[in-house]
Amino acid sequence: MSLLKSNCIILKEFNLLIECHSGNLNLQSYVDFVKRTSHDPLFSKILNYFIDLSDVVVTVSLDDVEKYNNFTIDNFKWEKKKKVALITETPNQMVFATLFKNSNMQKLKEIEVFSTKENALEWLNSSFDKNEIFSVLSNLRGHSLK
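Below the sequence we write its predicted structure tokens.
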């Protein structure tokens, strides 16, 4: 795999930020992505997150997960409970996502790991128009969903 490629869209009407990533996921590239995303005029601290990691190779260490958690604590003070759905496909991704979930230090950020996009969307909000969300995901990824 190559460098991390990231796309995102904020769906204000669903209170949802959708992220799709491919390539090598490392701490610095993801922090840079988060900083850019937080400057989007539609960005809000009340958004829930749908993060598709199914096309990444995770190259972060446990230390990196802790550094990222510290980065979010220092830069994002959550005022309202938020949900973060992490979608994984491989054991490497599942281990990373589980470590990330278990190391979460922010009480207002609820993180869950999913192996299907459907279950992640259901957990985030059962009233989502799943076909609309899947269409957005497909456009972000540039190809059909698996």
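The beta strands are 5-11, 16-25, 48-58, 82-87, 109-114.
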